[in-house]
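Appendix B: complex inputs.
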Amino acid sequence: MDDLLSEFLTETAESLEVIDSELVRFEAEPNDQGILNNVFRLVHTIKGTCGFLGLPRLEAVAHAGETLLGKFRDGTIEVTPPLVTLVLESIDQIKALLAHLENHETEPEGSDADLIGRLEDASEGKLSGAAPAKDETKVEAKAEAADSPKADESAKKPRPDNLAEDVRWDEDLGRELRPGEVSLAELEAAFASVEVEDFSNPPDHDEQAAVEAEPVEEAKPAAAAATSAIDAVADIAADLAANDTDAHPGAPRVSQSIRVNVDVLEHLMNMVSELVLTRNQLLQMVRTMDDSEFKTPLQRLSNVTGELQDAVMQTRMQPIGNAWKKIPRIVRDASHDLNKKIKLVMEGDQTELDRQVLELIRDPLTHMIRNSCDHAIELPSDRLAVGKPEEGTITLRAFHEGGHIIIELNDDGAGLRTARIRQKAIENGVISADEADSMTEQQIHRLIFAPGFSTAEKVTNLSGRGVGMDVVRTNIELIGGAVDLVSREGEGTTFAIKIPLTLAIVSALIVGARGQRFAVPQLSVVELVRTGSNSDNRIESINGTKVLRLRDRLLPVMPLSSALKLDAEEDEKSNRFVIVMQVASQRFGLVVDEVFDTEEIVVKPISSVLRDVTEYSGSTILGDGSVIMILDPNGISKLAAFDKSTAGAKPVVEQAKKSVARGEKKTSLLVFSAGAAEPKACPLSLVTRLEEIEVDRFEMTNKGPVVQYRGQLMPVIPMSGSLMANEEGRQPVLVVNNGDSVVGIGVDRVLDITEDVLRISIGDESPGVLGTAVIDGKATEVIDIGHFLSQVDFDWAEAMSEGPKEPKSLLLFESHDFFRNMLAPLLEASGYRVTTVSSAEEAIASDIEPSDFDVVLADIDNDAEARRFMEKLSTDADWGDVPRIAMSNNQSKLAAPDFAGCVRKSDRHGLLAVLDQTASLKGQAA
Amino acid sequence: MSSTEYITLWIGGQLFGASVARIHDVFAPTSITPVPLGPKEVAGLLNLRGRIVTAIDSRSRLGLPPRDKDASIMAIGIEKGAESFGLIIDEVGEVMTLQDADREDTPANLEPVWAQIASGVYRLEDRLLVVIDIDKILAFETDADSDRGSKAA
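Resulting structure:
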């Protein structure tokens, strides 16, 4: 991309963030001219740069927005929420245009006439709520006077007396200024006043401020009744002169700084890390020598290195406020949309943390704020009814605490409804009713972080419209953080997020097992326990599973040596310590032979060939120069099957075993048994949910067994011919969402969820079986879910399926055998007549006619094949009338042109929905 | 006539050649940290002048028996993307310049693993030299350690 353009995009994006939050602040304090001036300046800068870069569409929108802001500034038009919304709308449009610009380097086609029209109407006071101030001309004249350049230089062409007062005159040009034009004098003043670029602001910021500040100092106010606008501008001039930012709290800091590419900083950071490691090595070597002449210089080197490290770390630090910039706007929009009154209080936005962490915390935080607005804060009337102030308050607070940053998000809303969470958790199978009874209120509240707690709609919506709190938790834990909450019903909720300052250097405990050393991130270590036969803390075993008596609890423990399959003899040194670790809500012990010390380590990413080994999060070089593996507490906990959700399943690491090298697509597979002993499998994406339904909940109808499931009747088809192998107990059911209805498929036992390349090596003619594939080293029958769906009595299917009214015919182009075999029955079950072609050759050879089809569904993962297939289609103009839908497993391909729609292969619901819409398009397009 | 410079390597009694252009350095690996649960081809990680290098054992990669415990080893350093690898071999020989035209196709009856990593063969006077494709030898399937399947659940 053009350097100039990319610079512009970066700067403008920053300006827009500031504008967003400033505007919201302005709406609350419409009399604060300082804020308005700031916004006006930024919009003006954007407009000016657009014109310079030849971006007419952007310029037009910015100009219209600026005009309206100008009227606000002049006091011509009163500030009202609808008008602020309008300005925000124009900011959004600018953002949209910028996004397009970033991707395509050109402005999108089209026009913003509507938006501009509305902005112009608003500027002329025609929009509702925009009551023009009374003495319009007078005020404007005064404001213009402030803007007009100094008039005392002889060489200039003076302003003609007969000119209307509100026309801006440029003495250098000898003509009127066109709208949006800046006089030469102003420009010169601007250039003269540019001193330093500010890191957090576009460079034009200072210029722009000067443009407005300069004339004020020299121009004579037109009237004695100098307006507040002038005062405000003068204020800014004074502020700038004193380089004092405190006068405008919240306004961006102006300081001496330069822009540096992030890559440079990263490189610097890496080099310093290396330097630190080398220094540690040297120190270790010299320590063993008595009386070395190196001692003094090395001490000095050590100090300098330490300071250098601190300084470089500092460059990566940014105030957390940068991650908060969007939040005022989000809260404002949410409160408008929801008709709530919400006040946002942000404290500690100068608290600094690592840039990388900052980026990673942004999304979870935004999500949590949205949640608070949406669910926590009640409607004003409800609040008044329970005696709370009408306006709800959300407080965001950040502070340092012992090497961590704590972010607290507090609301004075309704609080979590314990009873409802308990009920929902039981419904969704997160906990059993028995478990729920024994849980404390706090434990139940924490269930909102549990995977699978989200509602069914959210789970099936793969587009990710609503991410649940479990995703928030996962994201926070990914960066070594933790999240917890305290909630009181009726009083509000406080979330506390604890995140490390930086990801680059972590404090780690060095432990040994069977003579090998490993690093354990200290963050997840709760305590160290010494064990032994004569100690209070003995390791005992139940059926081979080891547990530790720790105070009054039993703690599941696992020797690190067996977790990592280290083979060496146990000796008297073995298993002397237990590291008690906490991963999410799981607490477990890792038994090690030795504990050495703690060391600050620089985490190096793990080699690509080891990426599948989830037990390690990285490696590092210790002070003595040796390489050491860093254990990933998450991976270990899963490996050791301490994690309840994977208990019984094979260790995750084996699931993750994959053949990246082959470059083939892996499929998540559900492995289960039904009937015969050999395992069966089907792609996990086809299954909406796994349920264990108590056998006595099944009811028999003349059409087969049904069960009441989430408010509707779900027919259950036994896969192996008979349901309820047990008279009592629970029946595992794969719940499959078929359009709007659900169908259950009863299996004997769910064995595993695994990821593997699905290659059906032996085809199978028997109904319901696609063939046999090797999954996890075992021959496994791959089940055709579609077949079982079609087994549901037709009346049912009819009643429940939202498929097309009269069958549409569909041409399925899919080069992958598995997907073709899977999709065809599925589509047929949904009411399509399906013709399949597996290759471009087949499509060319067969006598398919465009008139026979309502829609074409084409796999575009196999590039060459898909292109040839498309070429075949383009040979006949009639194919142009048949809408095409592209399918891909590759997210990045989903923006394919030439297609009416694009869906992910695994997104069955999306596929059916798009098909349904598109299939009815044929003919209309012609 | 174009020619290529090869560094010759001995792995399990067989002479190999690797294009000098891809070899970053040759070193004697010391204190390799094993990676439990890692693929069997990964001998471990080592520190080469402050960088962490992933050591790949050529013998296990080629399906050859492991070398004696105290046999001396050498390694060639390879950069792939942003990562550093060390291919552990038995011995390093000389650098040879060989004519590209003399290179013959890999024999069809070669074992699949060998055929995969070999990009040709030279008939030297006294023996055969197998040309190693460096990228291929570093790309291996990491599902090799299927012995983990027996892990107690």
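Residues 3-28 of chain A form the longest helix (26 residues).
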